[in-house]
């Protein structure tokens, strides 16, 4: 598999095409910076946007989408939009209601992907039934989960009628998730990286810098290229135009097998975000 273009897609197990690359908007508050970031990403060729109800920014994301589509001269169908149901809304009726609320805030009539944000024990199966209903009714193009470990997936699959198409998890050179990725590959579930840049904490890493120098690229670009060559969908966040451009400029070089192994070797099973087996929200 070789991803050659910012708009290249992976085909999910239901046939839906999802861009390998997108923009994330975690911690970006409502306001012009948010609207501009989304719009800027779309005008620079991004075709995927990742938000969540808990980010409390779906209205601005929706506005950025409208402006971006207009400026880029593309239709809604050419964009892939993801949102997520928050923990307090997990339940059959409440998840369906949460989906309606997200759509309304985003100003959209469907999402491309709707995810269960966290695997809250005792709650995610009812929420999954709701996602299955939305999917079967044709109201959402694909459904998936986030922060699911292997045992969460195994448990969900016992009762699921439809397999999740995506599992979005923390993933970067300090947390390479090899076992989870192998499990997901076996099941046909596409892995997607959140905090691919480890929230900026890896950008002065010596080994990564050396590899970056060899390719005359930045460390951020090396990490994002490593995601793609590992067949992981990636959604780096930036609100700065020059970084939005920089992050997406990863289609004109290739990491060697040795470089891929060196980066894989930086794994320490280290998380910057909450542990899916031990969270209290
Ligand atoms: N499912 C989940 O539970 C979950 C959890 C966390 C995140 N996510 C999703 O994943 C997306 C990405 O993760 P993230 O936002 O946590 O972290 P990230 O993408 O790893 O890192 C974002 C940080 O890196 C900086 N940055 C971005 N590009 C850069 C570059 N080229 N050079 C230097 N600094 C750069 C950004 O600052 P500037 O904006 O100032 O450029 C920001 O501070 C989120 O936005 C969200 O959509 C999902």
Can you tell me about this structure?
With 281 residues, the protein is α/β, with parallel strands linked by helices. The chain has a single domain (16-264), classed as TIM Barrel (Alpha-Beta Barrel), CATH 3.20.20.100. The chain contains 10 helices and 10 strands. It has helices at 32-43, 58-72, 92-106, 124-136, 150-159, 178-187, 206-215, 219-229, 241-248, 257-264; strands at 9-11, 17-19, 23-24, 48-50, 80-85, 111-116, 140-146, 166-170, 190-194, 233-234. An 8-stranded parallel beta sheet has the order 3-4-5-6-7-8-9-10. The chain is globular and about 55 Å long. It starts with 8 loop residues before the first strand and ends in a 17-residue tail after the last helix. The structure holds NADP nicotinamide-adenine-dinucleotide phosphate. NADP nicotinamide-adenine-dinucleotide phosphate binds at residues 24-26, 50, 117, 146-147, 168, 194-200, 203, 220, 235-240, 243, 246-247, 273. Pfam families: Aldo_ket_red. This is Diketogulonate reductase-like aldo/keto reductase. Residues 32-268 form the NADP-dependent oxidoreductase domain.
């Amino acid at each position: 598999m070789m991803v050659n273009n910012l708009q290249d897609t992976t085909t999910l197990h239901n046939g839906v095409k999802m861009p390998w690359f997108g923009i994330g908007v975690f911690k970006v508050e409502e306001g012009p910076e948010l609207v501009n970031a989304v719009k800027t990403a779309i005008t620079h060729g991004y075709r995927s946007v990742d938000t969540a109800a808990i980010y409390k920014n779906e209205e601005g994301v929706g506005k950025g989408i409208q402006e971006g589509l207009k400026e880029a001269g593309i239709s809604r169908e050419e964009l892939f939009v993801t949102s997520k149901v928050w923990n307090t809304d997990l339940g059959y009726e409440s998840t369906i209601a949460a989906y309606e609320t997200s759509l309304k805030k985003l100003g959209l009539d469907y999402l491309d992907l709707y995810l269960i944000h966290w695997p809250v024990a005792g709650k995610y199966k009812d929420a999954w039934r709701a996602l299955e209903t939305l999917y079967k009714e044709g109201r959402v193009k694909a459904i998936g989960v986030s922060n699911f470990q292997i045992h969460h997936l195994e448990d969900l699959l016992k009762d699921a009628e439809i397999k999740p198409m995506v599992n979005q998890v923390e993933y970067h050179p300090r947390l390479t998730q090899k076992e989870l990725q192998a499990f997901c590959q076996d099941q046909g579930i596409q892995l997607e990286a959140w905090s691919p840049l480890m929230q900026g904490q890896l950008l002065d890493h010596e080994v990564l810098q050396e590899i970056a120098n060899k390719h005359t690229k930045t460390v951020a670009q090396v990490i994002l290229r490593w995601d793609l060559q590992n067949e992981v969908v990636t959604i780096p966040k930036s609100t700065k135009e020059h970084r939005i451009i920089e992050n997406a400029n990863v289609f004109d070089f290739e990491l060697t097998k040795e470089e891929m192994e060196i980066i894989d070797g930086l794994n320490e099973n280290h998380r910057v975000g909450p542990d899916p087996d031990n969270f209290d929200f």
